[in-house]
Amino acid sequence: MRHDSRLSRMLHVLIHMDRHNGSATSEKIAQMLNTNPVVVRRTMAGLREDGYVRSEKGHGGGWTLARPLEEISLLNIHRALGSPEVFAIGLAIDHPDCLVEQSVNAALRDAFTEAEAFLVSRFASVTIADIARDFDDRYSRCDQPQGPAACN
Amino acid sequence: MRHDSRLSRMLHVLIHMDRHNGSATSEKIAQMLNTNPVVVRRTMAGLREDGYVRSEKGHGGGWTLARPLEEISLLNIHRALGSPEVFAIGLAIDHPDCLVEQSVNAALRDAFTEAEAFLVSRFASVTIADIARDFDDRYSRCDQPQGPAACN
DNA sequence: TAGCATGTAACTAATCTTGTTACGGAATAG
DNA sequence: CTATTCCGTAACAAGATTAGTTACATGCTA
């Protein structure tokens, strides 16, 4: 079962956009994510619709942040991506009328519903600015001579 | 992203096996799950290795419960299935040396780790007998004349 | 108006899971 | 001891989903 890494990727992009503060073309972003411009446009479209980024055409165009990172939570981005399915494990619906299946699914549904509520509240409580601050910490530490080799 | 419904299906099967208490062939189970015998054997193999069911070859063979449902938790079955990935959302690893990616992934990993711990403890606290009891409730209720149409 | 950048549809490729076929081995009935 | 039944497993085919790609239209700016 393959992972959906769009959330991780979008957070990555938004922080880079903020720190480099300027506009970035889909081409540039695609290089950053090891993918291609069309995929970037597809993915960023949701963020634009929800007002977190803006896109401009023509010379000097590209993508820019529409709001400060303090005002964007992980949940906001999750939703902007269409609230993709969180779990890779799901319920069987082979015999919807079977009472055994109903009991099994009710039990599993309870557990997954609670776990998702937990995750959602966690996502709501973290802003991208929080993550960017953590990045600043790492960066200042690795800026030292004895720091890690790669700080791109 | 397609769901892995093996957990739900295996719980379903185990309860049926217990309530009908006798052995069931892969063929029978396959019919119950709208699938085919080879898939059943593949999936049940893990449960057998962990000692929850036994399989016997030849005439009158098939699958039987090796332990009472009281002693089998949802977590046991989850593990017997190889502890499949719980989440459909994952971390991007396009640039492992990029400190921004590291910060993003650290934040996401924290959230997912906690959510998974929650789910695991939930799974550990529910036995299949608990679910079977819930089934008994539903069954006794629907046994009434005014109950649901299908009580297979 | 030339060139750059996004928007989007349509198609291709890669991947993953499930379903299927085929055959081997073990147990049992008769 | 032989035919039948059933599991075990490998190997292959089919189906579904996602990411990647191509192509072309639109819009903006110099």
Structure characterization notes:
Chains A, B: It holds the Pfam family Rrf2. Chains A, B: InterPro entries: Tscrpt_reg_Rrf2 (IPR000944), WH-like_DNA-bd_sf (IPR036388), WH_DNA-bd_sf (IPR036390). Two copies of one chain form a homodimer. By secondary structure, chain A is mainly alpha-helical. Chain A has a single domain, classed as Orthogonal Bundle (Arc Repressor Mutant, subunit A). In chain A, 55% of the residues lie in helices and 5% in strands. Chain A is built from six helices and two strands, in the order αααββααα. The first copy, chain A, has helices at residues 6-19, 26-32, 37-49, 74-80, 99-125, 128-142, and strands at 53-56, 62-65. Chain A has a two-stranded antiparallel ribbon. In chain A, β1 (53-56) and β2 form a beta hairpin. The longest helix of chain A is centred in the last third of the chain and has 27 residues, at 99-125. Chain A is elongated, with a radius of gyration of 20 Å. Chain A starts with 5 loop residues before the first helix and ends in a 10-residue tail after the last helix. Mean pLDDT of chain A is 90; it is low at 146-152. Chains A and B meet through α1, α5 and α6 of A and α1, α5 and α6 of B.
